[in-house]
Amino acid sequence: MSKAVIVGGGVIGLLSAYELARRGVSVTLLDQGDFGAACSTGNAGWITPSLSGPVPAPGLVGTSLRWMLSRDSPLYIRPSAVPRLAPWLFEFWRHCNPRDYEAGLHATAELGRHTFELFDKLSEHMDFEMHKAGMLFVCLKQESVKHIVDDVEAMRDYGYDSPTILSPKELREFEPGISGPLEAAVWVKEDRHIRPESLMRGAVAWLQANGVELRPGVEVTGFRRRGRQITAVETRVGSFEADQVLIAAGAWTGRVAAKAGVRIPMTAGKGYNVTVQNSKVSLQHPLYLVDVRVAVSPYKGALRIAGTMELSGLNTILDTPRVDALRRGANRYISGWDQGTAQTSWVGMRPMMPDGLLALGSVPQYDNLFVASGHAMMGISLGPSTAVTIAEYMTTGKSPVDLTPFNPVRFDQSFTGRLAGRLS
């Protein structure tokens, strides 16, 4: 039986361990903290292939430059982080064009083509909270409606029907919990959402019951190498021998890969949430508040608002003005959402590549080192399909999708990309 060591116990590491174990691989899963405790647990839990477009989008260069001057904007770049992030930001802005955006959208959509089917299969083996209520994109401006409709129409080849446009009157009948001067909404019936914490618990329970070795609180210090092979993962508590190694360490992927001499320009896109227990507002659908870029997810006994993108390096400092901006955004659409029995604020770090695409596949320096990371806001959506893809690739040498766009070391081809990798 071959042995794989996975570094990183978020949604990608957990589901990759699941898929490898089902294929007969002996798996050891390492995490520097606890499993599913980082950005995998505090996100909105959306299953939305309709949002497959990369973060660097056409027109975002000017917008992001304006936003970076405002601490409560949807995209905030902390000034003190700019010198270190400069090469990464150059590559990010270089990809804010229609050609790269369209190519990235279709590559990501192809990877997630079977997302809903895979979640249904996953639910047969794991216990987690999943809702099939579609997604409501709520707009204050008519031009926002057109943008959403165009994005969803681009997904027709990937199993989506045309979305339903709702007038303000139809919207309030469809979702009575919404208030405010709204222009229209777009309902995408195919999309879903889950309670991410429940998926993390369900995955851990399955892995424990099926012989996967789980090692929380284990920090990787290096890799033992022999020629083109990684023979063991070195940690502060000892070595873990491996026939194959998968780095799925989220925002820490670049730092872990660097210990093997591999440059991956991964940075952290910090996100925030506020979760209210037993909110007095009862929503039937998850909402994307388009013009303020806030996600709203209703769960059993809870309501979560989430969003913002902050580039400030690897840290989990909770910046109160960012949370306040989330609250103000939600207040424009939903009156009284924050009235409940308890309330918590959270911050986590999304793994971000400069072009907004995943780092998924093997690295040329080694025959047995693989990477699965860089999902930005799509970690939950693309978790099952990423796990199936990398597990197939590791066990058969073949991938069900073209991995070329996701080459983990694709930025080695440019000077600023290499520099961004060294600074990650």
Concise overview:
The chain is an alpha/beta fold and 424 residues long. Helix content is 33%, strand content 25%.
Question: Which helices and strands occur, and which strands form pairs?
Answer:
Elements: E1 3-7, H1 11-22, E2 26-30, H2 39-42, E3 46-47, H3 60-67, E4 75-77, H4 82-94, H5 98-111, H6 115-123, E5 130-131, E6 135-139, H7 142-153, E7 164-166, H8 168-174, E8 184-188, E9 192-194, H9 196-209, E10 213-215, E11 220-226, E12 229-235, E13 238-241, E14 244-247, H10 253-258, E15 267-277, E16 287-289, E17 294-299, E18 302-311, H11 320-331, E19 342-352, E20 359-362, E21 369-373, H12 379-396, H13 415-423
Parallel strand pairs: 1-2, 1-14, 2-10, 4-18, 6-16, 14-21
Antiparallel strand pairs: 3-9, 5-9, 6-8, 7-8, 11-12, 12-13, 15-18, 15-19, 16-17, 17-18, 20-21
Helix pairs in contact: 1-9, 1-12, 4-13, 6-12
Shape: globular
Distance between the termini: 35 Å
Fraction of residues in H or I helices: 25-40%
Please provide the count of β strands: 21
CATH topology: FAD/NAD(P)-binding domain
Which structural category do the helix and sheet elements fall into? alpha/beta
Rg value: 21 Å
- Name of the CATH homologous superfamily: FAD/NAD(P)-binding domain
CATH class: Alpha Beta
Q: Main sheet?
A: 9 strands, mixed
Low-confidence stretches: none
What's the mean pLDDT score? 94
In the CATH hierarchy, the architecture is 3-Layer(bba) Sandwich
Query: Approximately how much beta-strand content do the residues carry?
Result: 25-35%
Count of all domains: 1
SS field, number of helical segments: 13
Keywords: Oxidoreductase
GO molecular function, one term: oxidoreductase activity
Organism: Sphaerobacter thermophilus (strain ATCC 49802 / DSM 20745 / KCCM 41009 / NCIMB 13125 / S 6022)
Pfam families: DAO
